[in-house]
Design a protein that fits this description.
This protein is α/β, with parallel strands linked by helices and 229 residues long. It has 2 domains: 156 residues, Rossmann fold; 66 residues, DNA polymerase, domain 1 (Orthogonal Bundle), CATH 1.10.150. The chain contains 10 helices and 8 strands. The strands form 2 sheets. It has a 6-stranded parallel sheet with strand order 5-4-1-6-7-8, sandwiched between helices. Strands 2-3 form a two-stranded antiparallel ribbon. Helix 9 links the parallel strand 6 and strand 7. Helix 2 packs across helix 5 and helix 6 runs parallel beside helix 10. It is globular.
Length: 229
């Protein structure tokens, strides 16, 4: 744990001690690239290419779960090839992806307010570690969980493990994401959530999952967290 309990209690944030972020489509502007890479991978193995809506819907799931959902006519014995083709296309375009504008300033403000920051993502551990080693993100997050080391969304295990790691109860934990998978995971874990409308899923689907807020930009999210976090 990054600081002692007495020190932590002296500077306890207003409502949430632990704020967990989804990665792709929430902090990282990668939705269009991931959608296209899924479509190209399915085409490469001879499956029916999913629409943009079908391909973007699975963002946030564990990789093979996502690909199987997006390509139901691809037989299971082709899944290894399907995954390899997705990784091939993604690696070719990974430098096209960047943080949404304003994300770094938001994270820095939250750290200054003594929130613990974490990532809960459908990315692989290897993929997440690669992006977190960039200079601007090094040391920004206190913890992280990925689908390949826990369970894919909307299973609550990622959040449950993070809460145990930091000794934080669900009522003091907030999950932020751009998909119904993120918000359903928060609901399954007994945590509050905030949705963002600028990622993979249409925000009209969020309301049944009871988010505290739906942010329409990083600035909107930043302001809401400063007022309510």
């Amino acid at each position: 744990m990054p600081d002692s309990a007495p020190e932590r209690m002296a500077f306890r944030p207003r409502q949430f001690d632990l704020i967990a972020f989804d990665w792709d489509g929430t902090l990282f502007d990668s939705t269009a690239i991931i959608t296209r890479c899924i479509q190209l991978a399915v085409r490469d193995v001879g499956g029916t290419v999913p629409s943009d809506e079908q391909a973007s819907y699975v963002i946030g799931m564990a990789l093979m779960q996502a690909l199987a959902h997006a390509a139901p006519d691809v037989p299971a014995d082709k899944y290894p090839e399907l995954g390899a083709r997705y990784r091939h296309h993604y690696m070719a375009h990974q430098n096209d992806i960047s943080l949404f504008g304003g994300v770094l300033a938001m994270l820095e403000d939250l750290k200054a307010r003594h929130h613990w920051l974490a990532v809960a993502t459908g990315k692989s551990r290897r993929g997440l570690d690669e992006v977190l080693q960039t200079v601007e993100l090094k040391g920004m997050f206190n913890g992280s969980r990925t689908a390949d080391e826990t369970a894919g969304k909307p299973h609550p295990r990622m959040l449950q493990e993070l809460m145990r790691e930091f000794g934080v109860e669900p009522a003091r934990t907030l999950m932020i994401g751009d998909t119904t998978h993120d918000l359903q995971m928060a609901l399954n874990a007994g945590c509050a959530s905030v949705g963002v409308s600028y990622g993979a899923h249409e925000p009209e689907a969020f309301q049944v999952l009871q988010p505290r807020h739906v942010a329409h930009s990083v600035r909107d999210l930043h302001d809401w967290l400063l007022q309510n976090g």
